[in-house]
Structure formats: structure tokens, C-alpha cells
Amino acid sequence: KDEPTCAEVSTFGLPINRVSIYFDQDQVLHTRNCRRHHYSKQRGATAAAIMSYHASIIGKAEGRRGILFTGDSMMRQQFQSLVCMFRGGEICMEQYFHSDSLYVLYKDRDVQYIFNEDEGKNKPEIYKVLKAWFPGYFEGAEHSGDFPAIGGEEPLMAILYLWDRKPDMRRPEQMRMNNLSLQITSYMYWWDDGNEKIDDYMRDKDKHLNANPHQTYVFLTMPWHEEDGNTGLYEETRWPRNRKTFEWIINKKGPSEEASKCQGPCRRWLIDYGTIADTNRGENIINRVDRDHYQCAWLQEYPQQVATIKHNRQGCRDPMNVAVLQWLLALLVRIQQ
Description:
This protein is of the alpha/beta class. 30% of the residues lie in helices and 18% in strands. It contains eight helices and 13 strands. The strands form three sheets. It has a seven-stranded mixed beta sheet, sandwiched between helices. It has a three-stranded antiparallel beta sheet with strand order 1-2-3, with no helix packed on it. β1 (11-13) and β2 form a beta hairpin. α1 (42-61) packs across α2, α1 (42-61) packs across α8 (319-336) and α2 (73-86) packs across α8.
């Protein structure tokens, strides 16, 4: 078959490099540059409608707008998978980064920014969105003064990812953001010792949710981990950890079996990533790319030049992260009803 046009293949884009990827009849991976994204898949349009409704309609009416992802590389891939879903691509890959990222959706376009080594967040077009949708992200002298008001179209939705590896080293920004409509969080592979490390986080988050009773908070449990993976987190660690967060979210038991201080509507929910992963574990239906992650990745780290990829042996489709996102979307529909 002749090389397809950009409109005929799944697309994936970063702020600078926009590429499409496809497999030929011999299953050889090809790439080509594309200037724009195509919103052609019904699943992506449905996902965008559900998320933007939650953020722009429900959130705006209550003065709560931004959607926040926090966590390590597993949560970064959930964030990237959602962006891929919005863009209509069945194939999803990331060029990994260890920093924050902002995704903004407009009626006819979208853009993703990656704050590599804290560069870029003070640019006027980025600062404006962060200030309006995520007040609390900036504090004190962290930014270099106010920028003048910038004209232009109001976003339909803004989603921020915070690189946040461990509960005992949690980013303070998430506790300062008081107008979030939705937060999706988990601490997974970097949190390598002591389940009590999350106790202070639970206490702080209870206080934050009490002060912001209309915020929807979703916590993801930890999936199974191969014993020769990078972190050495085994089943005897994972199960007590997931049980602890289950008791906190579902049974409203706080840290160290204290009664949870969450009051009022208490919009806290749990998505059992662990069980979703375990369901596909025995028959190896969903493969990992590196014993830790499920999503294909460009190497090297952004913004370095791409040299190779990590492949999941499934055509770089992303079934695990998509399955978790489908649970999230179903949950949001239930909440909206």
C-alpha cells in the first residue's frame, strides 16, 4: 500500500515534533511529520465531551475548573493516554519527561506544553491558563511577575500533570489548588518503603477536600509488578499498600486506622488499577514494554532527539491505560448524573 496521508493514520504529537506512525503490511513501523491533529475517532470525541463537561460546565458553575493528574511515570502515561484519546489515535506513544505538562483543548485545536527543567511555564500563553485554571500552582517569587492580559479564545478544558513521585515528598502545589474540578492521583513505583509514608498525605488531603467539598478526587491502586523490574516492589508490599488506600477511600478510615476527617459530600473515589492489571496478568494479554510500563515510548528523554522506541508488542496500542481511562470516564458519567 502507498504511504497514507496524515489524515489516514493515527497521530501523536509533542509541542515541537508532530509525527504520525503506522505499520506497513510487513508490520514495520514508519513515522512521518504532520502539521496538525485529526479528531476522527468517536471514542476521543466522547471522552473529550465527558471531561470538558465536568470541567467547564459543572466546574465553572461552582468556580472549579482545572483537571489535575499527579504521580510518577505511570500517572504520566495515564495523562498522555488521555491526550492520545482526545486526538483520536488508536496508537499512543510518549517521549518520556520528568517534569510538569499542560494540555489545553479549544474548539478547533489543542496544544500540549512540557515544562522541561522549569522552562516555559512563565510564557504568557501558558501563564495565563495556569493562573486562571490552576491558581495555587504559582506562589511567591516562583514566577517573574504578572503578564498583561492576553486576548484569544477561552479554552474548553485544561489538564495539568504534576511530576510527583512519593507521598512523603509530595508537591505542595496540589494542596494549594482550590478550584480543581477533578484530581486523579496515585503513588506507585518510587514509593519503595514504609506504607506509613502516606499517612501525612492522607491527613493533608482530607483537610484539602474538606475545604473544597465539590472537588472530585480519584485515587488509583498499584498494579502488579514483576519481581525483576526496576523498583523491587513485590506482592507483600503492594497488597497492604492497596488495602490501606482502599480503607481510606471506600471505608473512610484515615491514616493508621484513624477515623477519616472527610466531611460533607466527600467526593472521593477509587479505581482499582491493581485488579484491572491482575485480570490480564495470567494470560499475558497486556504486555509491558520494560517490566514497569504499558505504553510505548520514544527514547531518549524529551527534548532530546529520538533514537529508538520501547515497544509493547501490541502495535503500540495502549489497552491497559485505555481500560483505566474507561473506568474513569464511566465514573464521571455516574457523578454527573
